[in-house]
Write a structure and sequence with these properties.
The complex is a heterodimer of chains A (about 260) and B (about 375). With about 260 residues, chain A is an alpha+beta fold. Chain A has six helices and four strands. In chain B, helix 1 packs antiparallel against helix 2 and helix 5 runs parallel beside helix 7. Chain B is globular, with a radius of gyration of 20 Å. Chain B starts with 9 loop residues before the first helix and ends in a 16-residue tail after the last helix. The chains are: A alpha+beta (about 260), B alpha/beta (about 375).
Chain lengths: ~260, ~375
Amino acid sequence: MRVKIPLALLAAVAAISSGVIRSYSRAEAPRHDAPRSPSGNVVVALCDGETTAEIAGVKEGETPTQAQAQAVAAQLMAEWERKNPGRWEVAQAVQPPEGRQGAERSAEEAPPKPAPTPGQAAAQGATAGGAGGLPAAPQGDVQQGHTYGAFSERDERIWKAETDRFVTQGHDIFHDASAVGGTIGVSCDMCHPDGANTHPETYPKFQVQLGRVALLRDMINWCIQNPARGKPFADDDPKLKAIEAYLLAQRKGVPLEFGKH
Amino acid sequence: MRRSKGVKSIETRHYEEREAFFAGLARLSRRSFLKLAGISAGIAFGKGLVTPQSFQLVEVAGAAEPGASEKPRFTFAYISDTHLYEDKLNDRFVRAILKAVDDVNNLDPQPDFVLMGGDLAQLGQKPELDLGAQILKSVKAPIHMMVGEHDWFLDMGEHWKSLFGAEQYSFDHKGVHFVTIMSVQEKDFWTARGMTPMERMKTVAGLDNGVQSRFEVGEAGREWLKNDLDKVDKKTPLVVFSHSPLYKYYRNWNFWTEDADEVQAILRPFEHVTVIHGHTHQMLSNQIGNIQFHGMLSTAWPWPYAPEGLPKLTIQQNRADPFDQFDGCGDGSIDVAESGLVNALYNLWDRNPVTIRASYLASGGTKDAPPRTKLASY
């Protein structure tokens, strides 16, 4: 039996030590601190958190050329292969998700599927079997060789965990008067337990009190400015996005009814 | 507010008339009906409305023919769920409780007493409770206090009790037996988690915080209640004050009392039982067996209706306008009728008041139904 190892070994993981981006939504992500080079050269770290390589002649803060970047990637990869003999060949043998088909697959062997949370069944029904989705029980031959579609259940679990984490951050901001920048101790949940009575599915709609069509974020910002007496978030503020994610997650499965009053 | 001298603007006069009208709605006789109808027509005319479409006249028509047993033997008012922070942090909630104090002080005639329905403070801190105690001193009528979870879980009621006395007590008033019970006890969730008192308080203060336990009267509290009621004749009208609803509405938000069934069993032998509770910040009505339940409004903010479990007899209040601090909040007064049951008037700020009558609950909703909601929860 061959093992699938989704590989994203190189590009994303070249975390140059001085340039780690820490957005709010990434605050808790593990980070690998590459050692600094005594010569001041850029040090690139592999995703194993151990292997590093210097780019000769490129100082911290400078951008390597395409060729230099490719060279250091190859160098790191070679080092990884030296430390992990034989594993690259296994990894190369990545199959399409439905590797085990037909007679090999019995009902007992059906891969475990995360149980839908209550109220989510309808929403899941809308995407099951859709493009890029991973049907729980594919029938017959399926299309293969599609890079974008080549993800596994494990990938989907990772994506779900990531999304849930974003929603959880929204939950935490929603329940914290200081996180929304409030000045009078008023947090969102005080009027909206579990995000109730925010009805994100009805936006955009004409907000009578504002005299114009508003998005959900306009109302979030209005509440932050008025009941909570804070400053409104910029439209691209990760905290605002996280609150939106939390409110939408609370209404999963509720039909979208924009414009409803 | 109403003592302004000299020339009054049209707006001032309009609001004075409106206020007088609403205050009068609570207790109507034939004579006051005619007087109020006149005011109502005036207001309606001022708004360019034709009188039969005026909300006031509809309300009055429903109240015009009270049966003999509905005649109030007395009235008490309430202020509830004020959730005070220190005034230097938050003036919003201070303004709201002051508005309620003005309301009850302006009632004419004055209520026999005022019930404070609990959650005087937001986080149970001394300056918060002290501020509340000081503000309540300006209430003209006598006050009966009830404790809420926001008052309790910082120091487990220590400062609240030093200000206001025991958390469970009873008294008799004009032939009615009143009992105040402490229904927001929680089983210890904090010791095992090593929480500080403030962490415990903030956990309980989060309505949707599932870490905490469910509210309960508890064994000791129920025992106390049994002993208190043993001395009372079962024909005596009984009114119970509790902070949480003494039934099971929505568990996740503690709109709930875990041992509600046991408590109801203690109350059931009485012929006329009414429970007045806080915590839910909304118009909320229920009847279970012979026990009638009325929720109180908050001065601080309205809660949304829970996604499930709403009692069938509840007439929802319209969704609140977030742009109006006072909308959906308010205070109220309770007429205790000769029958021993009560009519509860919800004095919703910036809206027409709504009365939930004993006859409405007792008839299973077939008689004296209050006006339905226009903007229900979704």
